[in-house]
Amino acid sequence: MPTYNKLVRDKIPQIIESKGKKISTKVLNDEDYIKYLKVKAYEELDEYCSAETDGEAVEELADLLEIIRALAKQHGSSIEEVEAVRIEKAEKRGGFEEKVFLIRVEDYFQ
Length: 110
Description:
Radius of gyration: 19 Å
Structural class: mainly alpha
Shape: elongated
Helix content: 55-70%
């Protein structure tokens, strides 16, 4: 019997049980929930980086977005507030659309 010890989407236990399997779960406290959301974010980011097609990439980005939504809520915010902060930062510092790659910065001594 495999042991996973990982955060899963809410309906995964019911899906597994519907296949005639017995499962063991627990509800995490807030501290552990944030901890395992962070672990899950790394897992999904790794899966995104390994994606071989645009479709797979979008699927993994959707998983990352779901984790970001959950983390925002856990921090007393919302995805809308996160988006507002993103827009504010983009207005001040730009986004990543121009694909600028910084190579070096040198100090000027005058």
